[in-house]
Amino acid sequence: MTGATLSHLDAAGHATMVDVSAKAPSLREAVAKGRITMRRTTLDMILSGAAPKGDVLATARIAGIMAAKKTSDLIPLCHPLALSSVKVDLDPMAGDASGIEITARVRTTGPTGVEMEALTAVCVAGLTLYDMCKAVDRDMEIGEICLHHKSGGASGLYERTTPPSR
């Protein structure tokens, strides 16, 4: 890959999928986070298992995993990847905040990274939480979605050092 430029534009300036065939496969990992804020009563309903649509957390976790596996179907020009691991954690926010922090950790051994898969997993898990609870709380907000960690590949390690902007 020495001297090659990775770009979504071809020589004529048209959008194209980046050719990663010359890149060496390596272990790659990405962690993305986001959150959904909601009324305290909504969070209590979810945590008690009393949501009208069933186990909200289990459904959102599965939706996030499935979304990571289908990222190339959702994001134009994104490479289809064989993912070796997808983990989605849904944790009640601490302190006075009322909501759930969503964390997705995605791994693959391949020629390109999994940042988009981790970010997609967080987005879809948040949307699933919203969908399953919107009948009782339409004021929920999904936000602060960002990459927190990326490792592997030629660009090396990335660790987020700044909080999400508000």
Automatic annotation (TrEMBL):
- Annotated residues that bind substrate are located at L77, C78, H79, M116, E117
Which catalytic reaction applies to this protein?
Answer: (8S)-3',8-cyclo-7,8-dihydroguanosine 5'-triphosphate = cyclic pyranopterin phosphate + diphosphate
Q: Name one GO molecular function term.
A: cyclic pyranopterin monophosphate synthase activity
Q: Which InterPro entries match?
A: MoaC, MoaC_bact/euk, MoaC_sf, MoCo_biosynth_MoaA/MoaC, Mopterin_CF_biosynth-C_dom
Q: Which UniProt keywords apply?
A: Lyase, Molybdenum cofactor biosynthesis
* CDD domains in UniProt: MoaC_PE
Residues the record marks as active site: D131
Question: What GO terms describe the biological role, i.e. biological process, of this protein?
Answer: Mo-molybdopterin cofactor biosynthetic process
User: Enzyme group, top EC level?
Assistant: lyase
**PANTHER family for the chain:** CYCLIC PYRANOPTERIN MONOPHOSPHATE SYNTHASE, MOLYBDOPTERIN COFACTOR SYNTHESIS PROTEIN A
What interactions and quaternary structure are annotated? Homohexamer; trimer of dimers.
In terms of HAMAP family, this protein maps to: MoaC_B
Its family?
Answer: Belongs to the MoaC family.
Protein name, per record? Cyclic pyranopterin monophosphate synthase
- The species this protein belongs to is Novacetimonas maltaceti
